Structure formats: structure tokens, C-alpha cells
Amino acid sequence: MENQKNFLPIAFQYGIILAVLRILVDFGLKMADVSAMVYYVGYIIGFILEIVLIFMAVKFFRDKINEGLLSFSEAIKIGIIMMVITGIGTFLSFSFIDADFQMRKAIEFAEKYDPENVDTVIEQIEVGKENPKYFLSFGMFIMYYIFIGFVISAIAGAVFGKKDEQY
């Protein structure tokens, strides 16, 4: 694999596209002020976008950039880089675009589906507001995205992987 091509431009390009799409889905649902259940369906939409775009990026890299070749590690790296970019964008979106929206929807969800525990949910939210651990929550958020990126890209690498027969 001496003529191996650089996957970083593809990973960054698709990662930025994915981050923008995730933020637009979230922002659109927030602007529409949908119910809690509909808002949480947005997470499923985001997950589907992650799967589709990681598969697209891996396949594009293999077919258009790397002359039909793809190692498993290249697929993993593409997916993880894409998801780190997406995780950073999504975290910033959650933190700065109507940051209390998540809390309001959690209370709304509890009121509708678990009314006897609404006070507990509100207490937990208040405790979280008083003791924010943004660095820890950011780290856990990114670790979650890295894990998801690893799993999706591992599957994509297994599906699209093709090694050069002479090596």
C-alpha cells in the first residue's frame, strides 16, 4: 500500500457536513417547539444520518480517492474523526442554542409519562445546574461519539474493505 492516499480531507469534509445536518435537525425541532416525544425522535434521525454519512464517506474514500482499496483501520479513522467533529458541533449546539430546552423537554416528558416522579426530575435538573461539570460532560459526550463512530465505521470497514492483493 505504498500509494495509500490521505483520508483526512474526506473525514473532515463529511464530518463537517454531518455536524451541520445534526445541528440543523436539532435547531429545526427546537424552533418548531415540538413535543418531547417528537424531539427525541430527532435523535433517531441523527443516528440514521450518522450511519448513512459514515458509510458514504468510507465508500467515497475507497472508490474515488484510494483506487478501490480500503483497510479496516482507514475506515475506523474516517468514522472516528467524523464523529469527533460531529460531537464537538453537537455539544456546542446543545450548550449555546437554547441550552434549557433539553431540561424543559425532560420535565415535559416526565409530566406526561411519569407524573409521580416529576419532582425528582426537577430536583435532579436543579442539582445539575448548581454543580456543572462541563469538562467531564464534554469528555463523556465526545467519548460517546467516538464509540458510535467506531462501531459504525467498523461495520462500514467490514462491508467495504478491500486490500491490495500484492501485499
Annotation field: number of helices:
6
Number of domains: 1
Tell how many strands the DSSP assignment holds: 0
Report the end-to-end length measured between terminal Cα atoms. Answer: 7 Å
Could you describe the 3D structure shown?
This protein has 167 residues and is an all-alpha fold. The chain has one domain (8-160). The protein is 80% helix and 0% strand. The chain contains 6 helices and no strands. The model has no long low-confidence stretch (mean pLDDT 85).
Task: Characterize this entry briefly.
By secondary structure, this protein is mostly helical.
Element layout with pairings:
Layout: H1 8-32, H2 36-65, H3 72-96, H4 101-113, H5 118-130, H6 134-160
Features:
single chain; mainly alpha; 6 helices
